[in-house]
Amino acid sequence: MNVFEAVKRDVTTRQAAELYGIPISHNGMARCPFHNDKNPSLKVDRRFHCFGCLADGDVIDFVSMLYGLSSKDAAEKLAADFGCIHESKKKKSCVKMRKTLSEEFRFQKAEQKCFRVFSDYLHLMKRWELEYAPRAPEEEWHPLFLEGLQKKSIVSYVLDIFLYGTLQEKAEMIAECGREVKNLERRISLFAAADQRESNACSRGNRNRGNDGTGEGNAEDESEGTSCQHSGKLQNNFSA
Ligand SMILES: [Zn+2]
Fold first, then answer.
1. How far is the CA of 22 from the centre of ligand 1 (A)?
2. Edge-to-edge strands of the sheet including 48-50?
3. What region, left, alpha or beta, does residue 130 occupy, with left being phi > 0 and alpha being psi -120 to 50 degrees?
4. Which terminal Cβ of the chain has fewer Cβ within 10 Å, N or C?
5. 28 C-alpha to ligand 1 centroid (Å)
6. pLDDT for res 58
């Protein structure tokens, strides 16, 4: 319900006239403020009508004429003075605010996700550089080692944008990297799953080897398990 409807529903011209200081007799007659009225010739009820100057209208017209306001301003004044609840303006601004908030929320989520994925990727590449570094000069470079070499600086640059960039730069980066982030996220989760399997297999192996029937020493075995060397064989399957 907009302000016009709300005011017309809630406020009669008579109530408005009374509030704005026009004396009204018990039969709803008043001296007309719109012409030089000697005797009450203005009838006020829900609407108003003057039998002298023929001024006529509803409560909003009345206040508009009385104060020289536009219809909209008169309606707003009445709504404020009589505490009419109208939705249009508030509702619109609420919807707008909600929309802005949800857009900001989506942006933040996207930003966090990009940052997390690229930073995981950077860690992974640093690890590859150590794990897959060629042991001898003539050895062919492992694709993951090569990937680390090639992409580390661009990924660092992307991360810098998310850390220090302007809103505009971040937004452009998010738009640009959408597909890349999706692919990387999938790839990183495959590596993590492979790591997990590897680590489980190692700790199982250690447990079996170290099992003397007492069940003691398992905690130590678990920690050995996590430091187990990755075979690298599994991971080759996931390279780009
Ligand atoms: Zn009149």
1. 13
2. 29-30, 42-44, 48-50, 56-57
3. alpha
4. C
5. 14
6. 96
Domains of the chain: 3-86 (3.90.580.10), 90-236 (no CATH)
Q: How far is the CA of 36 from the centre of ligand 1 (A)?
A: 7
Amino acid of residue 123: H
Residue 72 is predicted with a pLDDT of 94
Cα-to-centroid distance, 42 and ligand 1 (Å): 6
Longest dimension (CA), the chain: 116
Burial letters for 14-51: b for 16+ Cβ neighbours within 10 Å, e otherwise? bbbbeeeebebeeebbbbbbeeebeebbbbbeebbebe
Rounded to the nearest integer, the mean pLDDT of the chain is 83
pTM over 0.90: no
Distance 62 CA to ligand 1 centre (A): 11
Tens digit of each residue's pLDDT (9 = 90 or more) over 53-107: 999 999 999 999 999 999 999 999 999 999 988 776 556 666 777 777 788 888 8
